């Protein structure tokens, strides 16, 4: 993988992400540039589907460096996020020692040989040409206690393994955290990060994203779909459709050979946009108004 020097400014960030088909506005480009330049973790928040996870993937691709992902969930442990010991190999070592009439000691078992790196320790010890991009995805899904585990890493790019000591990154990884605000994050975590709220893309950028991600779709359909979804988001929904749902919807319409939006095709494909019965009913009930606004906007 060819690596690239760090961007020189926010505009350079935009150009490089554009080259890997991830389009960002000036605000997000500036946040990413500052995170890279200052060596600070970047916390991204926004509605589900605005592209938070994709931003980290695109950054790794644009820099030409390794991408490491830690998906957070309730009950996430140190063993899954930082490191754990290979107990099977430790047990085998004990049995071999006993077969030799030797007495194994703890200091013989808790050594590098039996240490298994998990995403955060992998990021700290990565020896690539450039630091990796570490995505700590949906950190709001993890328990409060897990946030406390991150403080040392986020503040000092270090992890302490009690039996071995502290591992500090020779070059801190580029860290991106995402949150859907399902719960409030601890102030101590926020203090250790730069912060940016990602909005849904404005219509022109949404059209360009759709044009690149669903290249087989007709141009009028792309524009109408982007405008329609923008209006759908103004409804009272359990889950407003994000770009991922919009791309799925446009792909479904294109697969059906649709070239312009009509009510029947919208209804047939609503399962790609609406993810609950209530949302489906709300969109269906508002279809006439949405279409009227759509037509008025032409």
Which stretches are poorly predicted, pLDDT < 50 over at least 5 residues?
Answer: none
- Note the main sheet: 5 strands, parallel
Derived from helix and strand composition plus strand pairing, the structural class reads alpha/beta
The strand count comes to 9
What is the string of SSEs from the N terminus onward? HHEHEHEHHEHEHEEEHEHHHHHH
Helix content: 40-55%
The whole-angstrom Rg is 24 Å
Write up what this structure looks like:
With 298 residues, this protein is an alpha/beta fold. Helix content is 48%, strand content 13%. The protein has helices spanning 10-19, 26-38, 52-63, 78-81, 87-99, 106-109, 119-125, 144-156, 187-191, 203-213, 219-232, 243-255, 263-268, 277-285, 287-296; strands at 42-45, 67-71, 83-85, 115-117, 133-137, 158-161, 165-168, 174-179, 194-197. The strands form three sheets. Strands 2-5-8-1-9 form a five-stranded parallel sheet, sandwiched between helices. Strand 6 and strand 7 form a beta hairpin. Helix 1 crosses helix 2 and helix 10 (203-213) packs across helix 11 (219-232). The longest helix is centred in the C-terminal third of the chain and has 14 residues, at 219-232. The chain is elongated and about 80 Å long. The protein starts with 9 loop residues before the first helix and ends with a helix.
């Amino acid at each position: 993988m060819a690596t690239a020097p760090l961007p020189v400014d926010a505009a350079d960030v935009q150009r490089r992400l554009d080259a890997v088909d991830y389009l960002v506005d000036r605000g997000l480009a500036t946040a990413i540039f500052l995170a890279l330049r200052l060596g600070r973790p970047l916390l991204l928040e926004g509605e589900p589907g605005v592209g938070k996870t994709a931003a980290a993937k695109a950054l790794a691709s644009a820099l030409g460096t390794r991408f490491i992902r830690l998906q957070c969930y309730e009950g996430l442990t140190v063993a899954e996020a930082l490191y754990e010991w290979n107990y099977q190999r430790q047990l085998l070592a004990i049995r071999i020692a006993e077969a030799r009439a030797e007495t194994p000691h703890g200091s013989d078992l808790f050594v590098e040989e039996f240490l298994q790196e998990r995403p955060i320790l992998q990021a700290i010890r990565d020896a690539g040409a450039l630091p990796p991009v570490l995505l700590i995805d949906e950190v709001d899904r993890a328990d409060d206690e897990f946030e406390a585990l991150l403080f040392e890493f986020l503040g000092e790019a270090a992890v302490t393994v009690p039996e071995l000591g502290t591992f500090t990154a020779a070059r801190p990884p580029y860290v991106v955290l995402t949150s859907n605000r399902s719960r409030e994050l601890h102030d101590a975590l926020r203090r250790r990060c730069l912060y940016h709220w990602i909005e849904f893309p404005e219509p022109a950028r949404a059209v360009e994203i759709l044009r690149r991600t669903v290249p087989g779709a007709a141009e009028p359909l792309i524009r109408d779909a982007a405008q329609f979804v923008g209006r759908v988001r103004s409804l009272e929904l359990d889950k407003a459709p994000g770009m991922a749902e919009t791309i799925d919807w446009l792909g479904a319409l294109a697969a059906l050979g649709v070239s312009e939006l009509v009510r029947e095709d919208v209804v047939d494909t609503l399962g790609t946009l609406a993810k609950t019965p209530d949302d489906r009913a709300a969109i269906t009930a508002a279809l006439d108004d949405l279409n009227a606004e759509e037509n008025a906007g032409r």
